[in-house]
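#onboarding

Welcome to the new folks! Below is a worked example of what a typical request in this channel looks like: someone posts a single protein sequence, and someone else replies with the predicted structure as tokens. Don't worry about understanding the tokens yet, we'll cover that in week two.

Example request:
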Amino acid sequence: MSRFYCPQPLIPGTTIALPEAVAHHIAVVRLAPGELITLFNGEGGEVQASIVSVAKRSVTAEVQAHIAREVELPYAVTLAQALPEASKMDWIIEKAIELGAAGIVPLAAQRCVVRLSAERAEKKLAHWQAIIVSASEQSGRNRVAQLAPLQDFNQWSRQQDLHQRIILTPRAEQSLADWARQQPPQAVTLMVGPEGGFTEAEESAAMAAGAVGLSMGPRILRTETAGLAALAILGASWSGM
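Example response:
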């Protein structure tokens, strides 16, 4: 059954107009009146709905039963990813959402090749938000991960929050897998550097602000691999997959 993100009240028994992007998708795949679809608004659970009408630019649907189904990890993992080259960030975000990431923080670090102006950053954020929605629809998630604005690494790393930050570095003596086996499931932020990694100064500043430096093992992973592998390691260690 097709699934769509619909950020509006989904009250059983009501007939609603679906968002324009959803209506366009339904028209493209030629769904017809009477067919069932699944809708979710990010507030928990999902609903079944029946298509009532399909026009060129609008679709209405009748909301039916609410289903209290969730597939979220029992702990929140935020991926703080330094900007990689080209379109790698698109792929990283898509796969991180599939693996259960609850938040994405794009970082501008010293070795980032990509530099975004304020206008380009705004466009990229809109593009990445669309990827998050699409990946949530595809993977069966009923919650939409939070996307933070682009952050300067040095300023962001000095901020304090309520959960553990982990900076992935090949210079660490302890691996993420070993650390996770010794810890209870908990909310964490994974910090991943760009091509070339974080500088030693960046790593030192982050750890001085409370981050734990951990490695991904004896092999050096690409930036587009490291965060996703780390999500998988936490999922396997804490039985959240």
